[in-house]
Amino acid sequence: MNRTGPRAELGDFLRSRRARIRPEDSGVASFGGRRRVPGLRREELAQLAGVSVDYYTRFEQGRAENPSETVVAAVAAALRLDAAETDHLTRLVRNTGRAGSAVDPAAAAAAADAQQVRPGLRRLLEAMPETPAFVLGRRTDILAWNPLFATLVTDFAALPPERRNKAWLVFLHPEVRGRFVNWETKARDLVAYLRFDLARHPHDARFTALIEELADRSPEFGPMWQAQEVAEKTHGGYHLRHPLVGEFTLAYESLSPPDDPDQTLITYTAEAGSPSEAALRILAGTVAPTTDTPARPGAPSDSRT
Hints:
Layout: H1 6-19, H2 23-26, H3 42-49, H4 53-60, H5 69-78, H6 83-96, H7 105-112, H8 119-126, E1 133-136, E2 142-145, H9 147-152, H10 166-172, H11 174-178, H12 183-198, H13 205-217, H14 221-226, E3 235-242, E4 246-255, E5 264-269, H15 275-285
Antiparallel strand pairs: 1-2, 1-5, 3-4, 4-5
Helix pairs in contact: 1-6, 3-4, 3-5, 5-6, 10-12
């Protein structure tokens, strides 16, 4: 990554979103002339958003002082951002207002704290023996899991704590990578969520280290990261494979405790009566009953270091 900091993040994101809108589709008067880059020019975007060119230039550079919610909403509408992209833009603008690109010591200290999974969530994981489930934390750290999720993906307990990270495993762990039939779809979804989460924790040094390692070691990660896609973790599905049952499809749902948006409980299910449900039951049958699992109450929380 050559460009870092809240202002660079904001500028890169806005330029990427201008680039995907064709001037002829925007309904704005073209400023003419030869275009060196695709998409809308700053002048055209400013016209759509109802602000001056000078103000929008400063806005894109992260130099506008305290942009109002109205201005942010106007820019988001002009760029045709979806809900997740609009939330992302709002956070990026807010981040640039926190002493520019300087590191906030309090925010950095908070990001360094190890996340703790409360006992109730751990008991919930253990109470779903036929449902693969885990708790996702900041930076896609895997904080806790039940035995069936480990059977589905990999033996997390055998991994060093710093490697229990979903993005690191999907990009750099051959076994986990091979679990996804449409690996590129899974990888792009993860990158979009990583960027969305990074805006929530701009001063997290561990987050920056993770992104740099993935960019350095994975040839696929860099182009995906540069695409500036963002998405919130909600629901969806993936086509998976497992050496015991072959290929099957599972749907996932994401639920975050109201008092801790930095943790997400994710569960995988199969359609009732489907071959995928049968495959999942076979995998569940291979899990030895035990009360001593990595998700047991009181187990230490794991964070990437």
